[in-house]
Design a protein that fits this description.
The complex is a heterodimer of chains A (567) and B (198).
Chain A lengths: L7 H6 L4 H31 L9 H4 L7 H36 L8 H20 L18 H4 L3 H29 L12 H32 L11 E2 L2 E2 L8 H35 L6 H14 L15 H29 L8 H18 L2 H4 L1 H7 L3 H31 L5 H27 L13 H4 L2 H31 L39 E2 L6 E2 L8
Antiparallel strand pairs in A: 1-2, 3-4
Helix pairs in contact in A: 2-4, 2-5, 2-18, 4-5, 4-7, 4-8, 4-9, 4-15, 5-7, 7-8, 8-9, 8-10, 9-11, 9-12, 9-15, 10-11, 11-12, 12-15, 12-16, 15-16, 16-18
Chain B lengths: L18 H30 L6 H4 L2 H26 L3 H31 L8 H28 L5 H4 L1 H31 L1
Helix pairs in contact in B: 1-5, 1-7, 3-4, 3-7, 4-5, 5-7
The chains are: A mainly alpha (567), B mainly alpha (198).
């Protein structure tokens, strides 16, 4: 069968091929990640030099050239929304999940290729709508990425656009997760039983279940907030609410906390949606570059599943300060402590895989190894937030920002960048430049720690996470010098991404060609396909003969899943 | 150009289901979470205020009862439509599917009468949270009915050509559409007592 006659738009734009869709997700998400990062650079300028005109572009944004408090709020809300819903999740789940899951289970495509194409385009439309909210009179949505009512219900019209966009993004995620689960379960190659799945597949399937079951409540909540804003209901507006000195003319009787419960019922599992694909990617990179079997495959699988399950019963630890009562707080405090156990097991198994290994320090391996301490810092600093007593002091401070950014930025994003370097030969048939990769890694690694580490310090001093200008308060002024350090580091971090982007685009045509289809000598099925894989991935069906990550006991040579044992 | 994907007409011998059937069950699981969230919102709102009205005082119970019967009947006919295909009787399938569609239109018609009466009395989601949650849940359920009508009408009309080329795959589609229809019916079975009878 020949596929060369397909017109360009059908092959690369409205494609049903999971590989093309995966790359589409990857490119779109990269754009949104850079855009979200850029918004933060504007905010960091304001934080470092409050009220000073932004160089070059300031005059284009506001009259004075400095950020206004309103614009600062809008940028903060949009940074969070774009990074999470349009950047990291589409990158981890959309790009890596779409490209790799079918290959790693030996399938010819996703189970529902047209649905797959549709989920990308629904995501794309959601992204366009979200970007259009910047053009609304009064600016973009400014109620935080959490959109807490009553503020969000009474705020400007861009919030309605935000909600509409979320409905699209949620729908896209739902379609995608059904597709991932069905593909991984139904289209497995012969011999690939569940306990032979690569860890990345386990991570993606668990993530898909989280998206499938946690996102609908947010969709419900978004519908309720839309009703509040458009039809004048008062789901989230209590009786007798006074806005700007006047009693709000609504029926009342609503409950603002209801939104928080529905929102965090999604948004806590969402944290694991962000982290699990990254864990999967790290496991693949680490085992390949350690040249030895993964330590505790089953332990890892059960930890991922337990983590996924527990993530549904910890949501209210985001709400300790809402006055919801000691009994509930204690319950969620206990579950939060329990969920740290599988997280630690996951880190430990990866760490023990490194033990006694002959490690290859390739660029992807550097990123994967940096993930471990960064994720550990992010995870451990979460414990004081999960304990009700210490949360009283730390709640809503920069400490919280430091905590979750350590998980998501040097954690998840580093892992995903490592994934790009690792699977780039599979995407393109060429390697990315190693020197540029190492430059990208080391500068990013140092800079990112200077961005986020001081946040713990500022947070313990009590600096609020939503402050437009902390020098107005004496306790804030005492840590202001750190803001200059952090903002400079953030700018360096932005510059450090230039070699990465450059590398990604130039290597497509000029990178070093791979010597064979399995350049890293890996064990999983995606390396059985040629690089890049053809339209139906495997010309002849692949068969699986053993567990992933196997090495011969006598010769210590790698034993890929797809090669029958000789001798 | 189409990629040959296995298990679209015959079940995977290991899992015992086709791709579509697994997919529709997963989709329904997410739908359970959607309506579950809205029902929990209803409970929270109801517990939060002292003057929550009884549904039987303010809503039209007789009309809703008729609608309940109509929906249950349509659930029966949609199974009969599937069973007819299993017995290779396309004509009978078309009869039962048309009946199902007729029932869905009757349901929406009655719903429209109910809504119209409320609107003519000046009642809207802004009136009180009871009406607000009533309109949101029944409205969303109505949209699900509408979605079902579109799918079922397609399968009855242009979609039924597949019966000639891939009968097994077509029967599978009817089964999935039926599962969805049962779910929409089931939501109403919960919704009716909670909103109208309590």
């Amino acid at each position: 069968m020949s596929h060369h006659e397909m017109p360009f738009w059908k092959k690369y734009i409205f494609s049903t091929d999971h590989k093309v869709i995966g790359l589409q997700y990857g490119i779109t998400a990269t754009f949104f990640l850079l855009f979200g990062f850029f918004l933060m650079i504007l905010m960091r300028w304001q934080l470092a030099y409050p009220g000073v005109e932004i160089p070059l572009i300031g005059k284009a944004l506001t009259e004075t050239g400095a950020l206004t408090p309103e614009l600062y709020n809008a940028l903060g809300a949009m940074h969070g929304t774009i990074m999470i819903f349009l950047g990291v999740v589409p990158m981890g789940v959309g790009a890596f999940g779409n490209y790799l899951v079918p290959l790693q289970v030996g399938a010819c495509d996703m189970a529902f290729p047209k649905l797959n194409m549709m989920s990308y385009w629904v995501y794309f439309v959601g992204g366009v709508i979200m970007m259009m909210s910047f053009l609304m009179p009064g600016g973009a949505a400014a109620s935080g990425w959490t959109s807490y009512p009553p503020l969000s219900v009474i705020s400007n019209n861009a919030q309605t656009v935000w909600l509409l966009s979320m409905v699209f993004l949620i729908t896209s995620s739902l379609l995608g997760s059904v597709n991932t689960i069905v593909t991984a379960i139904q289209l497995r190659a012969k011999g690939l039983n569940f306990m032979r799945w690569p860890i990345h597949v386990w991570a993606q399937v668990t993530t898909a279940f989280l998206l499938l079951l946690a996102f609908p409540p947010l969709e419900g909540a978004a519908i309720l907030q839309l009703a509040d804003r458009v039809f004048g209901s008062s789901f989230f507006l209590p009786s007798g609410l006074v806005v700007s000195g006047e009693k709000l003319g609504v029926a009342g009787g609503g409950n603002p906390l209801l939104w928080q419960h529905l929102f965090w019922f999604l948004a806590h599992p969402e944290v694991y949606v962000l982290i699990l694909p990254a864990v999967g990617v790290v496991c693949e990179i680490v085992t390949t570059n350690c040249r030895k079997p993964f330590y505790g495959y089953k332990t890892m699988v059960y930890s991922i599943l337990f983590l996924g399950f527990m993530s549904f019963v910890v949501w209210a630890h985001h709400m300790f300060m809402t006055g919801m009562g000691v009994t509930l707080s204690s319950f969620f405090q206990a579950t939060t402590m329990i969920i740290s156990i599988p997280s630690v097991i996951i880190l430990t198994t990866i760490l023990l895989t490194l033990w006694g290994a002959s490690i290859r320090f390739t660029v992807p391996m550097l990123f994967a190894m940096a993930f471990l301490p960064m994720f550990a810092i992010g995870g451990l600093t979460g414990l004081p937030l999960g304990l009700t007593a210490s949360d009283i002091h730390l709640h809503d401070t920069y400490y919280v920002i430091g905590h979750f950014h350590y998980v998501v930025a040097p954690g998840t994003l580093f892992a995903l960048m490592g994934g790009v370097y690792y699977w780039y030969p599979k995407f393109s048939g060429r390697h990315m430049n190693e020197f540029l990769g190492k430059l990208h890694f080391w500068v990013s690694f140092v800079a990112i720690n200077f961005v986020f580490m001081p946040m713990f310090l500022m947070g313990s001093k009590g600096v609020s996470r939503r402050m437009y200008d902390q020098t107005q308060y004496s306790y804030g002024a005492s840590t202001q010098s750190w803001n200059v350090v952090m903002s400079t580091a953030a700018f360096v971090l932005l510059l450090a991404q230039i070699p990465f982007i450059w590398n990604m685009f130039t290597a497509w045509k000029t990178g070093k060609k791979v010597q064979n289809d399995n350049p890293w000598e890996a064990t999983t099925l995606e390396w059985a396909a040629s690089s890049p894989p053809p339209h139906e991935n495997f010309p002849t069906p692949v068969e699986v003969y053993r567990n992933p990550y196997s090495y011969s006991a006598t010769t210590r040579k790698v034993l890929p899943q797809f090669i029958p044992q000789e001798g | 150009m189409a990629v040959h994907i296995p298990y679209i007409d015959k079940p995977n011998p290991v899992t015992g289901v086709t791709n579509a059937k697994l997919g529709i069950w997963l989709f329904l699981a997410s739908e359970v979470m959607l309506f579950g969230a809205l029902f929990s919102a209803l409970i929270t709102l109801r517990l939060g205020v002292s003057d929550w009205p009884h549904g039987y005082d303010v809503l039209n119970v007789p009309l809703a009862t008729v609608n309940t019967v109509v929906l249950i009947f349509s659930s029966v006919t949609v199974v009969m439509a599937w069973a007819a295909l299993k017995m290779h009787n396309l004509k009978q399938f078309k009869t039962y599917m048309s009946l199902t569609l007729l029932m869905s239109f009757i349901f929406l018609g009655i719903k429209a009468v109910e809504y119209g009466k409320k609107f003519s009395h000046g009642i809207s989601p802004a009136t009180s949270n009871f009406y607000a949650i009533y309109f949101v849940i029944t409205g969303l359920h109505g949209l699900h009915i509408l979605g079902g009508i579109i799918v079922n009408a397609y399968l009855l009309g242009p979609g039924s050509h597949m019966w000639k080329s891939e009968p097994e795959r077509f029967t599978g589609r009817i089964e999935c559409a039926g599962l969805y229809w049962h779910f929409v019916d089931l939501v109403w079975i919960f919704l009716f007592p909670i909103l109208y009878l309590l």
